[in-house]
Amino acid sequence: MKISTITSRSVLAVSLAFAGTFAAVAPAQAAAPMQHKQVPGYYRAMIGDYEVTALHDGGGNVDTKILHGDPALIESLLARSFENDPKSVAATVQAYLVNTGSKLVLIDTGAGGHWGGPTLGKLMQNLKASGYKPEQVDLVLLTHLHADHAGGIYQNGKRVFPNATVMMKKADADFWLSKEITAKAPEDAKIFFKVAQDAAAPYIAAGKWQPYEGMDEIVPGIAPYAISGHTPGHTGYMISSKGQSLLVWGDVAHVTAVQMPHPEIGIDYDSDGATAIKTRAALLVKLAADNTMIAAAHMPFPGLGRVRKADTGVGYDWVPTTFLNVK
Ligand SMILES: [Zn+2]
Fold first, then answer.
1. Residue 10 placed within a domain
2. Mean per-residue pLDDT for 126-134?
């Protein structure tokens, strides 16, 4: 009698323990909160001995009415890429951090929260997540002074990269910093002049703003690369190490789904549309022929890939890089 009492109590205790376990686990599984947080926006690649880190500044949507082409063709090209709303086509902004082993060079800097709304301006958090600090950057190279490339160098009137010299083609600095040209600019373009001038001011005051004119190598293995048309001084950068190379091409194209198959379709953002189209056409012929790796500010993140001639014989395909580990 005594034994059976103990036994039945034990069984009851075990049953209650199980019941408790199920009661505790089952609802928690059903109610696991969603995390709503993306992975950090950086991606690493090696070009010879140089480490390249793609840094995501954020994303936004482009209204493709700013493209210059037949709207029906544009719509059908977008639909082929599963973009069904021509007023809202996904686009990203990224910059590239190059560690040569002796210099840390940042090519472009995102919008810094000065343009494009709160979905841009994430470069700094991603630079830090990638293991670097802004004070480690020795040199900032800008492809051009549009707000989504130069806006990230300043905050509250101060330099974000306190030890960096900032360099860009002189023609771009002359244009975007000119008070006369600013005064004549259309109202909706004035923000681009303001951001460029606000970005430049603290670096000019510190003697760290250095426009350049030639095309000589700036640091060993990083040289300017002429890509004219988008802005008066728009310039890419060719990174070369141990026989490998990467062209940081800035704003050669903005809407992958449209401008790769039809590079003759321009965009409002180009200062000199005809030259930008001619430059893009010639550059794509060359890059498809020699398989050069490209780092593109507005191709889907990380914006690293190559172009190849399309099987249709018209235009090009963007071939993104494969996610790889680095040694
Ligand atoms: Zn841009």
1. no
2. 98
Give residue 164's pLDDT.
98
If we measure between CA atoms, which residue out of 176, 98, 180, 172 comes closest to residue 140? 98
pLDDT digits 0-9 by tens, 15-54: 444 444 444 555 667 899 999 999 999 999 999 999 999 9
Domains in the chain, number: 1
CATH number at residue 151: 3.60.15.10
C-alpha 251 to ligand 1 mean position (Å): 5
Residues of the domain holding 71: 42-320
Which residues, in sequence order, are CB contacts of 122 under 8 Å at separation 6+?
41, 56, 57, 58, 110
What is the Å distance from ligand 1's center to 187 Cα? 19
How many angstroms separate the alpha carbon of residue 116 from the centre of ligand 1? Answer: 11
Q: Could you tell me the two tokens for 74?
A: 């544009």
Cα of 297 from ligand 1 centre, angstroms: 6
Separation of CA 298 and ligand 1 centre (Å): 7
